Amino acid sequence: MTDLIVVKNLTKVYRMGDVEVHALRGVSLTIREGEMVAIMGPSGSGKSTLMNIIGCLDQPSDGAYNLDGVSVADLNDNQLAEIRNQKIGFVFQQYMLLQRTTALRNVELPMLYGGKGGSRHERAMAALAAVGMDERMHHKPNELSGGQQQRVAIARALVNEPRIIMADEPTGALDTRTGEEIMGIFQKLNREQGITVILVTHEHDVAQHAERIISVRDGIIAGDEPVQGRILAGATVAAVATEAEAMDEVAS
Amino acid sequence: MALLESFRIAWGAMLTHKLRSLLTMLGIIIGVGAVVGMLAIGEGYSRYIDAEFNSLGVGTFYVNPSVDRDADDETLRPQLTAANAATLMEPGRAPAIDLVVIELNRNGVVSAGGERFLFGVKGVTPGFFTIGAQELGDGRYFTDEEDLASARVAVIGQNVAETLFGGIEGSVGQRITVNGVQFEVIGVSVAQQSQISGAFGRFSDPGEQVYLPYRTARDRLFRNDVTTRVDVSSLTVRARDVDLIDEAIRQVTEVLREEHRLTYQANDFRITNPAQLSAQFQAITVGFSAFLGTIGGISLLVGGIGIMNIMLVSVAQRTREIGLRKAVGAKRRDILLQFLIEALVLCLAGGAIGIGLGYLLSFGGTFVLYTISQDPNIRASVSLFSIILATSISASIGIFFGLFPAIRAARLDPIRALRNE
Ligand SMILES: Nc1ncnc2c1ncn2[C@@H]1O[C@H](COP(=O)(O)OP(=O)(O)OP(=O)(O)O)[C@@H](O)[C@H]1O
Ligand SMILES: [Mg+2]
């Protein structure tokens, strides 16, 4: 498998007046295509900062970052936006759906800024089907449960067929059972479509769904180990598996 | 991002905040309404003035025997005669004119055998009936021959006919006496009074007049009432062409001064040029336009600032949305365009309502203009030009005042924007 993400000696310094905050102090790591990685660590350790840089939302203060063979530091704003649009799908703790807009339209959003061709409508419906939300596509976020909203958000992250899905605390606002369902979806996407999944979590149970756990502490990597006894989300995954085929049909 | 999509989003955003949007647009609505209404009413008024002056006769001016009050010359006495009129028409004297009409205006006791009435009596040369808005109800006008022969024929105004004979019909051929002298009625004039003729001291209603050949009136009725210096009330002079009117006035002045043997003295006659007054009346339009234009301008400025304010509020409220859009691939340009189009849609919607308000104002203007002109053709109508103008103004305001908030939105840092609560 190829190295998708290669980070070397990454630092990030925030300046707030006279105070300098070293959020990252030399992070090096490699994530291969098709991996499912969990990033863990105490609050303020720099997880989100790292995710933002890997997700091309932010640039490091120093260090090198290669994404899919491209040196991200050399890219301008528009090129970064294009990478986010084409290669990366984001899932947030707070779902971040447009409130007055139907699930379908929410999923269509990334395609407004560049798509892979084909009918927006059909692609959005296929993405919703892949997360088991096709029957609720005309509902607005306030008519959906938290878990359902997060599924719509995952569909939105999927719709442009990204190489990577980045999820910062995707289950943080959900109960255990619903969180388990969401993790099942990530595992399925990782397994069946080969999408690289990087997620940040505080919960050990959630991290156990990944293949590998990277621990961050005070802006440096304190540990990087494969998961022993990986949890596979069972029944719930099977429930949405059939819908994945619908997605594949449209995509092909 | 597709422009159409931006317009759809903007339209949706406007409809979700109907009241807020309407209040925001208020300045634009009033401003555009004032401008559109101003243009419509100004145009209508201008047409009205044109029509009024045309009814006085195109390219004509008046000469009266009158001394300028400011003339510092005690010995100067007014002077103007029928002989002057004849001289003006002599070949080569005043080549820029093609007609001189003599008027002698008096009052007379008029009767058709029974009751006696006081009416205006106008002794005029026949050319009088070729100038301005004349209309014959029945019969004919008198001729030069009849004038030269001091024939006892009369054209009577509509009201005179009604008073004496109960109507226009049957008036022609009747006999009347004016100050005891017998006349045959040969025609009835139905000319309407011009609204602004009073501006020239011509308050007489044409319907209340008895028109006699000038020489008949002078020699048979008012012989004791004229002098060798003044035997006319006024001359109406028509220039060969509207553009020649200034030249004609110059020539007439020169001939009359020569005839009256004036050297260093001031004129002993006065020339009135309606075209100049027309310009003064038109100037009222300018004042009116400036008034409404100022209201419009201030409203548009206030409206523009209102738009800017609400767009800044909107950007602040939707910071997370902007962050999200950027995260999923929106470029600065996309965000800029989205908010610019939102401001544009607000302004254009306000402009559209403003044009509607302009129509309402123009209806009011039409009503007022009709009340004073009694002419249904004089209307304050909204022109295509003013609609295009209003639309461009609205669009410009949207872009101008929407630009700053849109730039602010476009520059937001996606991470901070996403974290915004
Ligand atoms: N925009 C910023 N300006 C200044 N300091 C910042 C900024 N963003 C993060 N930091 C600081 O950088 C450090 C790392 O923050 P980061 O958000 O990456 O932590 P985290 O590991 O995601 O924490 P949590 O688990 O609470 O989300 C913290 O000390 C934080 O205060
Ligand atoms: Mg964090």
TrEMBL record, chain B:
Pfam families: FtsX (PF02687), MacB_PCD (PF12704). Residues 295-414 form the ABC3 transporter permease C-terminal domain. Its main location: membrane. It comes from the Bacteria. Belongs to the ABC-4 integral membrane protein family. The keyword Transmembrane applies. Keywords: Cell membrane, Membrane, Transmembrane, Transmembrane helix. This is ABC transporter permease. It is found in: Cell membrane. The lineage of its organism: Bacteria, Bacillati, Chloroflexota, Chloroflexia, Chloroflexales. The keyword Transferase does not apply. The chain crosses the membrane at residues 21-41, 290-315, 336-362, 382-407. It is a multi-pass membrane protein. Residues 21-254 form the MacB-like periplasmic core domain.
